[in-house]
Description:
Layout: H1 3-7, H2 41-52, H3 65-68, H4 72-76, E1 79-80, E2 94-99, E3 109-114, E4 117-120, E5 128-129, E6 147-156, E7 159-166, E8 171-174, E9 184-186, E10 188-190, E11 202-209, E12 218-225, E13 229-238, E14 243-253, E15 263-270, E16 272-274, E17 288-289, E18 293-298, E19 307-311, E20 319-325, E21 328-334, E22 355-360, E23 367-373, E24 384-390, E25 399-409, E26 420-426, H5 435-440, E27 441-449, H6 451-454, E28 463-468, E29 472-481, E30 488-496, E31 509-517, E32 520-521, E33 525-530
Parallel strand pairs: 3-11, 19-33
Antiparallel strand pairs: 1-5, 2-6, 3-4, 6-7, 7-8, 8-9, 9-15, 10-15, 11-12, 12-13, 13-14, 14-25, 15-24, 16-17, 18-19, 18-21, 20-23, 21-22, 22-25, 23-24, 26-27, 27-30, 28-31, 29-30, 31-32, 31-33
Amino acid sequence: MPAFFRVFQRPRGFASRARFATLVCAGALALSAGQANAWSLDDVSALASQRVKTPFKQASMLVPAELSAMEYDNYRDIRFKPESTLWRADKLAYEANFFHVGSHGDSVRVNEINAAGVKRVPYDPAKFNFGKNQLSPKNWGDLGYGGVRAFSNLNSPTYKDELIVFSGASYFRALGAGQLYGLSARGLAVDTAGPAKEEFPRFTDFWLEKPATEGGPLTIYALMDSERMTGAYRFDVKPGEQTVTEVHARIFMRATDKPVTTLGLAPLTSMFFFGENQPRPGDFRPEVHDSDGLMIATDDGKGGGEWLWRPLQNPASPLVTSFSMKRLKGFGLMQRDRAFKSYEDTEARYELRPSAWVTPLNDFGAGKVELLQFATPDETHDNVAAYWVPEKLPAPGQSFDLAYQIAWQGKNQQLPPNGWVTQSRRGTGYSKLGADALGQQIQFVIDFAGPALDALPKDAKVEAITTASANARVVESLAYRNPATGAWRLTLRVERLMTANAAGPAQPVELRAFLQHDKQTLSETWTNLLTN
C-alpha cells in the first residue's frame, strides 16, 4: 500500500491534517538580490537543472528534541501571529504566513520576491505563539518553515480567508468562494500504483512574489527534489467563485539505473468512505466523501470526444483502473452532489467540499488517466488518487515541460455539454424473481439530467445503451422518465457468468451505460466496476 494512504490522518481542518510523508529540511540555497525583475520559471529551472546533475541526497535535519517529542495536539497549539503575516501592513490583495516545523522536521525555505530583489524569509520564533507549550525556540537555530499558506478576500471585502496551502511533500490545495477544504493536488505522483515503492517528490524551496497590482493572480514559485527527478514550478492562483490554479512546470529526470514505472502528472488525492452507491449500515449520514466520482473528457482531435463518469468506491482491496486515450481534454475528482441532505453532517459539511477539474494547457499526448482506490476504515484517511500517465516516459537525463490548470469548483462546476449522472444506486426493490435468480443478479438505478434531456419532447423514445465485460451479461436495461421528478432514469440488471473451473467470480465486471435518442447521444457514459 502506498505510504500516503497509510499515514494520512484526516481531521476536519487542513491545519490539523497529518503529513503524507516524512520530510526533512532542504539544504541551503544561495540567492542574490537584484534578481527580482528577472525572476521567472527559468531561474528556478536553472536551480533544478543544477541539482539534477548531482546524486540525490536526502536532506537531513536534527529536529530539536522538544519538537520531536511533541504530541500532535500540542503541535496544533503553535500558531502564527497575525501581526507577523507577510504583506499585511501593505494592505495588498494577498497575504501569506507559514506553518511551524513539526515533529518530523518537515521544513521548507521561503523567499520573497519584491521590487528590491529576492530575499530570504528566515525562521523567526517571535512570529509564532507557542500556546501552552513550554519550549525554548531561541536555541533551535534556523528551522525553516513547515509549509506556506496564502490568504485573499475570497468571501468578504473586509476579511481575508485562506486561499491556498502548500504543506507536506508536493501537496497543495485551494478554495473557491464558499468552499471548505477537501481533496488535494500534488506536484507529481511517482510509482503510486506500481510494484515499486512509491516515491514522494517534495517542494524544498518557495518564492512568493509580492503582489504589484489589484486584480492580478498570486504567483508562487517552487523547487522540487526527489530521488529520480527535480522540478521547477510556477503557480498562478486566481481566486473567485471557482479559484483557478495555473501550473507551469519543468521536470528534469535524474540519470539513474532505477527507471520510473509510473509517472503521474497533475495528480489529485481524495477520500471516499461511503455513498449512495455503497451505503454504510449504522451511520446516520447518507454519504461521507470529499469526492463522489471521477470525470474524464477525451479529445478525438476533430472537435468531439467522449465524457466518462466513474462513481468512486471504498473497495475491499486495492483497485487500480485506467482509461486510455490518444488525447486528454480534462479530468477531475468531482464532488458532484452539492445538497446538504445528501450528507446531513453539520460539522464536516461535505456538500461544500470542492471539485477539482484539471485542464491541460499544453498537449499531454497519448496516455491514460489512472484511478487508484484503497479501502479506508473511516473518513480520516485519503484513499483515492487520480492522475495522468503519459504513454511515453521521459528517459533518465531528459527534461520536459508541463502546463495545466486546476479549477477548484463548487455548485457551478464542469459538466458534460449534453447530460450527466446525478445519482447511482445499487440494489433491488420488490421483485417477482425468485431468491435464486436474485442471488445471481445485481441491479443499478442511475438518474440523469442535462440540457439534451430537457429538450426532448414528452413522448420521446429514449434508449438505454448498456454493455458488460465478457464475464457478465446484461439481463435488462430500461430508460424511462421518473414520474416524480420528470428526469430520466436508467435501470440496469446484470448477471455474473461463472466459469466451470472457478468457485466464484475472479475478475471485476466492467459496465457501461448511456442514454440515446434517434442515434444521438444524450448523456455522458456511466462506467462502473463491479468488484463484489
